[in-house]
Write a structure and sequence with these properties.
Elements (H helix, E strand, L loop, with lengths): L1 H12 L1 H24 L1 H13 L2 H8 L3 H27 L3 H16 L5 H36 L9 H43 L1
Helix pairs in contact: 1-8, 2-3, 2-6, 2-7, 5-6, 5-7, 5-8, 6-7, 7-8
Protein name: Stage II sporulation protein M
Keywords: Membrane, Transmembrane, Transmembrane helix
């Protein structure tokens, strides 16, 4: 139980930063939505890009298997976004992954802008997916922040030098990754069930 409380102690110790991460994510997401509502071509360009890179076809091909769809969503969220977009760049340049993800949050807003009735109705069940996954991303962003802070200011984690600060920061990244992973799993399962079972009846009605 002591180990299970460790991630939450880190969050409490950096609560202000965690709240800032949340505010930035939702601000950029809503800004992206607003931009797409003002300039619908942004949304059209995003959808066209998904068609060209095969994302749309991949989604359609997975709709017959909810668990495979969940696993694919989980892999994309954890590996493509969490690791490759946020954590890995931040391990090379402090805080860089945070900026990269905020750009993606803007893109999410552009993609999900309620430009028509279909998208607006889809957002009703999908809002829970957004909430869960954004909280997971906020935790990963917090991990990137904690790592960068420990790296640049090793004294804040009781380290004698930046090398030790970096290593201690990585340990905190590992702890914060645990609740983030739980949220990613819950979000992936819900999103797959939502898209396959909740959205179609809603649109049909």
């Amino acid at each position: 139980m002591r180990h299970l409380r460790r991630p939450f102690r880190i969050i409490r110790a950096h609560l202000r930063a965690y709240l800032v991460m949340n505010a930035l994510i939702y601000a950029l997401f809503l800004t992206g939505m607003g931009a797409a509502l003002l300039f619908p071509d942004l949304n059209a360009a995003h959808l066209a890009a998904q068609q060209e890179d095969g994302t749309a076809d991949l989604v359609v091909s997975l709709l017959s298997n909810v668990w495979l769809f969940s696993l694919t969503i989980l892999a994309v969220n954890v590996l493509t976004v969490g690791v490759l977009t946020i954590l890995l760049p931040s391990m090379i340049v402090p805080f860089l992954g945070i900026a990269f993800f905020l750009y993606r949050a803007f893109g999410f807003g552009v993609a999900l802008a309620p430009l028509d009735e279909t998208t607006a109705l889809t957002l009703i069940p999908h809002s829970l997916t957004i909430l869960i996954e954004f909280q997971a991303y906020a935790l990963v962003m917090l991990a990137a922040y904690v790592l960068g802070r420990a790296w640049l200011r090793p004294g804040t984690v009781g380290a004698p030098n930046r090398r030790q600060g970096y290593l201690r920061g990585l340990r905190q990244v590992a702890w914060l990754s645990l609740p983030a992973l739980v949220l990613f799993v819950v979000g992936a399962v819900y999103e797959a069930f939502e898209i396959i079972y909740l959205v179609p009846p809603l649109l049909a009605g």
